[in-house]
User: Fold these one by one.
Assistant:
Number 1:
Amino acid sequence: MKIHNLSKENSVLNCFLSELRHVDIQKDAMRFRRNIERIGEILAYEMSKRLTYQSEDIQTPLGIHTSKLPKNDLVLCSILRAGIPLHQGLLNYFDQAENAFISAYRQHKEHPESFEIVVEYLACPSLENKTLILADPMLATGQSMVATFEALKAFGTPKEIHLVSVIGAKPGIAFIKKHFGKHVNLWIGTIDEHLNEKGYIVPGLGDAGDLAFGNKLQQ
Ligand SMILES: O=P(O)(O)OC[C@H]1O[C@H](OP(=O)(O)OP(=O)(O)O)[C@H](O)[C@@H]1O
Ligand SMILES: O=c1cc[nH]c(=O)[nH]1
Ligand SMILES: [Mg+2]
């Protein structure tokens, strides 16, 4: 897997990341969602440099300009709920993409530390020979990303795969590396060291879905 960790370079991305993490600023849910969306836009821009381009003649009012334009058939798939603002950020730039949505949530057992990933809702176009972009802002244990990808296999074989996330944890990245081939790209805002006993990224930012959309009852 090729990992593109954008926080390795100084950029305005770090401002958006630090606002997402900040215990007071993150209480403003609208700002929280917009910061995830802005990071989605930055990740889309960086990823766009690695797509396949072809020349196309564009008629202007005064002549013809030959532009190099991306020719990939993109399918943008996001994991609900927290993936919604990240999806919007990616779609702001990849506005011609087809779209897929999948729900994956942690179903907790008797102990808060143990959970399994439940995939229920899935709406997806054909993925055959397309460029799949699979997005989820939090890559903690990596189980949601892997469970989602397994569910998507029924929709065809993409010719290119890009995973997109805002904050990842080293153990989760090690886990997904085992499941995705070496040609798969991971575009990520930043990578933290640890997971706590409940599978949350430390220092991370807390629960992205709840911060974006409010608390939910545990099932
Ligand atoms: O890498 P993992 O250990 O699988 O954890 C990451 C998952 O946790 C979050 O979703 P959550 O289950 O909180 O659902 P929500 O978006 O509905 O809040 C996040 O958006 C990922 O989907
Ligand atoms: O740190 C984490 C882990 C999973 N889901 C989140 O929203 N945050
Ligand atoms: Mg959540």
Number 2:
Amino acid sequence: MKTVIIATKNKGKAKEFERMFLPLDYEVKTLLDFDDIEDIEETGKTFEENALLKAEAVSKITGQVVISDDSGLIVDALDGAPGIYSARYAGLEKSDQANMDKVLKELEEVPDEERTARFYCALAVAFPDGESLTVHGTCEGMILRERRGSHGFGYDPIFFVKEFGKAMAELEPEVKSQISHRAKALKNLESILNSSKFSK
Ligand SMILES: O=c1nc[nH]c2c1ncn2[C@H]1C[C@H](O)[C@@H](COP(=O)(O)OP(=O)(O)OP(=O)(O)O)O1
Ligand SMILES: [Mg+2]
């Protein structure tokens, strides 16, 4: 089995990457396995810029190929918010519960048909020679009026996935790992993963 480093401290993402990389015969290591890497400031203006900041910083520190994920929720009725601020929407303590409460409150008066939203995931790959690239994936849905389900993380309980008639947090992890923005982004990385530059 090969090893891949994902520059994330998010346990929910870590679990999803472990599940998605298993069939590709990769063991996943994240920043939760290195206790000495500090938080990398997300100062970019786009998901892609923030993903690159994280991947490049950790590739420099480790000298290895590193993948990172910058993702979030885009709500049409909120002009794209929370967007790149998804993790810190209700404050720097990054509380999923507070973030969902804030979105639900802001959408209180918004009728069902205007509650369209999507998850966006940018993945960056940074190579030790300084080269880097990004890919992305999206997943369309609607914002519910209350939480449903207990799987997943982040905004999953308030994100309705039409094809399944369920909240993302009601889908089994193996299903989310097939249809999510993260899964689609990873699919767009497949040719890179198979290239000799990635796995020497
Ligand atoms: O599949 C998802 N299901 C639900 N919510 C999600 C998902 N994917 C991203 N999200 C939300 C969570 C967080 O509020 C933000 C990510 O912020 P983002 O900066 O990329 O991640 P993070 O700070 O938690 O961890 P890290 O930067 O160490 O990877 O979007
Ligand atoms: Mg972050």
